[in-house]
Amino acid sequence: MKGSLDILYEDDDVIALNKPAGLVVHQGAGVKDEETLADILLIQRPEIQGVGEGSERPGIVHRLDKDTSGVLAVAKNQKAFLFLKDQFKQRKVEKTYLAIVQGNVKAPRGTIRYPIVRGKLKQQALRTGYRVQGTEHKTIREAETEFLVRKRLQDATLLELHPKSGRMHQLRVHLAALGHPVLGDQLYGGKVASKRTHRQMLHASTLHFLTPNGLRLSIEADPPEDFLETLENLAPTRNIDNEPSIEYH
């Protein structure tokens, strides 16, 4: 899709598109001489120039990591931008992700409520289970993720994820903290999970939100081919006795 847009829905206010893995959403630290989704948007929808909060992020109300695929909403005018931005801020937008993670998650469902704090190396790092000292303490943010086991695989699990907050790298950090990092995650996956696939197996499958004209949308995007191929290559494992639903704090 590079160089074009995979449009899932569009009206006078909103574009919902299917972002491919490997495409950065907008320019920022560490992004040099690389085509971004924002670049493509400005070419194909030049009317969004000036919409939003800065020239590098035209119409962008939320983001997905470079190697995360799936549904992304873009505002086409400033009124729509402010309306959608407020929905995200008020946590009225419902997001569903699919992730293939390392190991067998035994609990059929659960809730993760680990706080997240930005690390010293421009990375997001989990600071739970031990004391946070100094100025770092001020950067702690509450975060909540619900998960549901969709399929058990060979030393891996397909999870459905529902983030209830929108912290940077939240899903990846929470899953790594459980000992079940996303396969292919180069930052949080560790020596094993980071090498099992060529990129992180995380897909934004569904986005539910209200448009400025009062229409409630439910936008879905099927997982990309490499995600499905990874599932096929991981033969289902034997049945594992489920543990009760668990809350992690």
UniProtKB/TrEMBL annotation:
UniProt-listed Enzyme Commission number(s): 5.4.99.-
InterPro entries with a match to the protein in the record: PsdUridine_synth_cat_dom_sf, PsdUridine_synth_RluC/D, PsdUridine_synth_RsuA/RluA, RluA_PseudoU_synthase
UniProt keywords, alphabetically: Isomerase
Keyword Isomerase: yes
Catalytic residues (positions): 65
Catalysed reaction equations from the record: a uridine in RNA = a pseudouridine in RNA
Gene Ontology molecular function: catalytic activity, acting on RNA; pseudouridine synthase activity; RNA binding
Alphabetical GO biological process terms: enzyme-directed rRNA pseudouridine synthesis
Domain Pseudouridine synthase RsuA/RluA-like: 13-177
Family: Belongs to the pseudouridine synthase RluA family.
Job description of the protein: Responsible for synthesis of pseudouridine from uracil.
Protein name, per record: Pseudouridine synthase
Natural source organism: Candidatus Terrybacteria bacterium RIFCSPHIGHO2_01_FULL_48_17
